[in-house]
Amino acid sequence: MERTNNPEAGKKQFKKTGGGSLRYGNRIIKPGQTFWAYPEDIPEVFRDTVIPVGQGSEQQEEPLKVSTTEYSLSPRPTGGWFDVLDGNGKKVNEKALKRVDALKLIDMLRA
């Protein structure tokens, strides 16, 4: 007897992505867990948090888009002190830095 990945015809493999638990039959499906089910058996409420996985699935997960972060210097009004800002404008350092130290921090962050 040969084993198959699909236990019954018509069932598809799904993954629970959102928060909360899903009750399916006598099972409780936790976030991140994969399970086999008939697509029409999944309640309407959970269809946005359950995605199909494996072969034959209509939705494919897109790879993460990784972007390089740029850092810049921002002078403080009190002369000689600087802040290091990331690409979103959020301050990276806690205390004000001298220009040389701020440039060293930027080099460390880029490495």
Which secondary structure elements does this structure contain, and how are they paired or packed?
Layout: E1 12-16, E2 22-24, E3 27-29, E4 34-37, E5 50-52, E6 72-75, E7 82-85, H1 99-110
Antiparallel strand pairs: 1-4, 1-5, 2-3, 6-7
Question: How would you summarize this macromolecular structure in one to three sentences?
Answer:
The chain has 111 residues and is of the alpha+beta class.
Shape: rod-shaped
Main sheet makeup: 3 strands, antiparallel
Give Rg in angstroms: 25 Å
> What is the average of the pLDDT values?
82
Tell me how many strands there are: 7
Q: How many structural domains can be distinguished in the coordinates?
A: 2
Q: What share of the residues lie within helices?
A: 10-25%
Order of helices and strands: EEEEEEEH
Structure description:
With 111 residues, the protein is α+β, with helices and mostly antiparallel strands. The chain has 2 domains: 12-52; 72-110, no CATH class. The protein is built from 1 helix and 7 strands; from the N terminus they run βββββββα. It has one helix at 99-110; strands at 12-16, 22-24, 27-29, 34-37, 50-52, 72-75, 82-85. Strands 4-1-5 form a 3-stranded antiparallel sheet, with no helix packed on it. Strand 6 and strand 7 (82-85) form a beta hairpin. The longest helix has 12 residues, at 99-110.
